[in-house]
């Protein structure tokens, strides 16, 4: 009984230590592709180890290791959208943005997402897409305000990967931001949604737009085989 309790506690310790694994890009942004690959491999290794420990407790080490590896790989594998560093431009300065909305400083902080798109709106696995967001933030002064931009890709209302989070500070104005990402090869075809949230400490806005992941077009190339050359049969 004591031996089994020790094995269970050790297994839990391995799970907790494995949950903290993550990778980052050189610029400090999350590397979801690297995290996904590491998660799948690390999950399989961790799962096998846990399975072996479970096997010790149950008396069947080999079977425990196999079951643990399968479960670990499944738990560690996610879609793995790989985001590149975003591009950003100022579309309106503070005065133009305030005039656009008839804004008064007494209104407090305000955040409005004006536009959201996935370009192109129909893609295939392995394609590169741009997640474009235009938003306005107004604070009533020229001081930068901390904000968080969250991009989440969903299917049937459920996230297919971890949200991409961009933290930074901006002055009052209107901004256009484009995030570049690759559609992973393991994403099934179908309808997806991009959910974008822009928020400060005192204001936020959220919008959703849809896009399609379609099958790759079948190749029209036909295979040509030589039957004979100058009357001499050719072996194919």
Short description:
The protein has 236 residues and is of the alpha+beta class. The chain is built from 4 helices and 13 strands. The strands form 3 sheets. Strands 4, 6, 7, 8, 10 and 11 form a 6-stranded mixed beta sheet that branches. Strands 1, 2, 3, 5 and 9 form a 5-stranded antiparallel beta sheet that branches.
Structure description:
The chain is an alpha+beta fold. It has 2 domains: 75 residues, no CATH class; 133 residues, Immunoglobulin-like (Sandwich). Helices cover 29% and strands 37% of the residues. It contains 4 helices and 13 strands. The strands form 3 sheets. Strands 4, 6, 7, 8, 10 and 11 form a 6-stranded mixed sheet that branches. Strands 1, 2, 3, 5 and 9 form a 5-stranded antiparallel sheet that branches. Helix 1 runs antiparallel to helix 2 and helix 2 runs antiparallel to helix 3. It is elongated, with a radius of gyration of 26 Å. The N and C termini lie far apart (67 Å).
Features:
236 residues, alpha+beta, 6-stranded mixed sheet, 5-stranded antiparallel sheet, 4 helices, 29% helix, 37% strand
């Amino acid at each position: 009984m004591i031996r089994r309790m020790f094995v269970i506690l050790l297994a839990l310790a391995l799970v907790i230590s494995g949950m903290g694994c993550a990778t980052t890009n050189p610029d400090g942004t999350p590397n979801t592709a690297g995290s996904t690959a590491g998660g799948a491999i690390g999950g399989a290794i961790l799962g096998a180890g846990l399975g072996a420990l479970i096997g010790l407790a149950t008396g069947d080490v080999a079977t425990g290791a196999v079951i643990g590896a399968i479960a670990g790989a499944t738990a560690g594998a996610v879609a793995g959208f790989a985001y590149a560093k975003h591009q950003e431009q100022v579309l309106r300065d503070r005065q133009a943005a305030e005039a656009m909305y008839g804004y008064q400083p007494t209104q407090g902080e305000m955040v409005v997402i004006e536009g959201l798109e996935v370009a192109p709106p129909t893609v295939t696995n392995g394609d590169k897409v741009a997640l474009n967001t235009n938003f306005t933030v107004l604070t009533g002064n020229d001081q930068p305000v901390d904000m968080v931009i969250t991009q989440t890709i969903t299917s049937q209302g459920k996230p297919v990967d971890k949200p991409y989070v961009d933290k930074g500070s901006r002055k009052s104005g209107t901004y256009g931001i484009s995030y570049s990402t690759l559609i992973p090869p393991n994403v099934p075809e179908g309808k997806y949604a991009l959910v974008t949230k822009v928020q400060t400490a005192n204001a936020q806005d959220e919008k959703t737009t849809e896009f399609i992941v379609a099958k790759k077009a079948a190749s029209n190339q036909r295979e040509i085989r030589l039957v004979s050359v100058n009357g001499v049969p050719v072996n194919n």
